[in-house]
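User: Let's play a game. I give you a shape written as tokens, and you guess the letters that built it. Ready? Here's round one.
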């Protein structure tokens, strides 16, 4: 099916997105390796691997080991940005979280602030998602209803044909609340898990090991429930699009028709 031209979209804020060149896909293996596996390895094995090189220069080698571990996600953020010329809200918040973790360890800030930091970022993101509903640029259009994943132009054209825009806006609002709920759950679980696992004084080897354990457990305990809620929100969005426009999944999702063939 021939795609609609950008100039025919009813919503100018949305129509400008598809005109941008296609963005390279992120390398998932590199993402996991640099953001999770390598930092965990350094935090757990850093003393044995790097201790002989660091001990002559540092009285407390736990701090430089923490910094080396955090260099991997920071380096990946810079590499990915220059390679794909793109960053998103999640990658920025992830970088901020990494830098704050380093600051807590270096400055030896009381450990309980690590739990506050872990909860604050998803909580602020959830609040931002809700507040954005009152702006011309709701974050739901970035997180779920975005032109990289969904043929927004085609959907908008069919919504206009079926006179369903108001009903669709209500659907986006409901999905936004689901997203906000996922971030609230993530914030709560982050705080509980951090308070349970990370208890040693910051700037110590035990603190590094506990941060490593926190990173490992955060995926099954935090990421999976949040992702399930986000997937539920996406499915509700796609079901609503089908009901309001008559478009099939293959017609709505970019690449779905090619995958089916």
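Assistant: Ready! My guess for every position:
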């Amino acid at each position: 099916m021939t795609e609609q031209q950008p100039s025919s979209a009813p919503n100018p804020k949305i129509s400008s997105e598809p005109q941008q060149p296609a963005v390279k896909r992120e390398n998932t293996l590199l993402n996991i390796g640099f953001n999770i596996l390598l930092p965990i390895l350094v935090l757990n094995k850093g003393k044995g691997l790097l201790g002989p090189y660091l001990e002559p220069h540092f009285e407390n080698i736990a701090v430089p080991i923490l910094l080396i571990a955090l260099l991997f996600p920071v380096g990946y953020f810079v590499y990915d940005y220059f390679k794909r010329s793109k960053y998103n809200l999640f990658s920025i918040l992830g970088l901020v979280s990494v830098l704050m973790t380093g600051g807590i360890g270096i400055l030896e800030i009381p450990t309980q602030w690590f739990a506050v930091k872990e909860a604050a970022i998803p909580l602020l993101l959830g609040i931002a998602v809700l507040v954005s509903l009152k702006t011309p640029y709701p974050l739901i259009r970035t997180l779920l209803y975005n032109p990289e994943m969904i043929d927004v132009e085609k959907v908008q054209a069919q919504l206009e044909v079926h006179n369903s825009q108001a009903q669709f806006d209500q659907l986006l609002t409901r999905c936004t609340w689901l997203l906000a709920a996922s971030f609230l759950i993530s914030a709560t679980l982050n705080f509980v898990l951090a308070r349970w696992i990370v208890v040693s004084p910051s700037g110590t080897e035990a603190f590094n090991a506990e941060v490593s354990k926190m990173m490992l457990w955060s995926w099954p305990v935090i990421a999976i429930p949040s992702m399930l809620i986000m997937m539920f929100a996406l499915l509700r969005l796609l079901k609503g699009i089908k009901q309001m426009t008559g478009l099939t999944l293959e017609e709505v999702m970019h690449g779905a028709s090619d995958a089916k063939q």
